[in-house]
Amino acid sequence: MVLSAAIRFNKGVPMNALNVPRPGWMTEDLVLLEEQARRFIADTFVPHLDRWHEAGIYDRDVWTKAGAAGLLCAAMPEEYGGAGGSFAHEAVINRELSLAGFDTFGAPLHSGIVAPYILHYGTEEQKQRWLPKLATGEMVGAIAMTEPGTGSDLQGVRASAKKSGNGYVLNGSKTFITNGQHANLVIVVAKTDPKAGAKGTSLFVVETDDAPGFRRGRKLKKLGMDSADTSELFFEDVPLPATSLLGSEEGQGFYQLMKELPQERLIVAVNAVAMMERAVALTIDYTKQRQAFGKAIIEFQNTQFELAECKTDATIAKVFLDHCIGLHVEGRLDTVTASMAKYRLTDTQGKVIDRCLQLFGGYGYMDEYPISRMYRDARVLRIYAGTNEIMKLLIARSL
Hints:
about 400 residues; alpha+beta; Butyryl-Coa Dehydrogenase, subunit A, domain 1; 9 strands; globular
């Protein structure tokens, strides 16, 4: 039997398998944004996904195209080049990227993590200098937290920024950096006072174009997320002006990181639920077309029961996610609830996608089928933005 191109390459498959009512925060302007983003992504990005997958990286002009379409920094105030929206706008865009299969694009980090650090903690001069360029895609943002020996232990970073004249000299190596090959604005976590523990940590904004001592390492070969440009970055006696310190005071880095982590974890949860939605929709469509023993696979009770469980799990996940987004838009999302969302929804994502792949049989193991890529891509969501074990630790502290 010849399967439809929609099943094999995710073109034209409707992504409304869950039928969850619109949450209260989903206003009419967000519905319009959803429709516009979906059309733009389908027309501009989806035709190239397989090529980028094979190449292991996407084109640099993806960023400027996304910026021109208003898909970058949607929550940023208009005075800094953004759309003046809220996190709800970011969530809508991120969901559409994942529903279309563009899970590897680092825009959620660029717009929802890097830009907010500058917006919330930068000086007015820093905001005016960097935010408009992030909104257009002229600058691609990354945040360099993780080091080869630290993982989730942000207090253990060894990168240092030592005073030198009127500025600093930055040294250190970072790994697992999203947007690492394309980024030309990197927020680096470094120690300004190694003896002060967490209070000796600061954030520095490094413009990497032609920066002496800055070097990109290899694009890391990963289990999944093949076209994501996850990289090593090296800083060897990089001279920085005093204005590279984010904000106007040293030692604020750990506080800044902790304040922004709930949104980072919510972004991961948005990605997880959208991937679940997509997996369920693709699998329903596949089982309606695939024949075995003289009838469609979906006519077998086992298939129906498996999909019923997947749909139920994905629906519960989406309802909780929508609740968390609503809390965050109102400024009421706490660290514990964000940790619950990140941990539970990524765990559920892994289970749902695994069960969906099983219903594809041998085809599910073939790379040309989106479900195969999703199975690999989903695994990292339980690791980054703080491992799920760290999430449980944070939740346990509230008991």
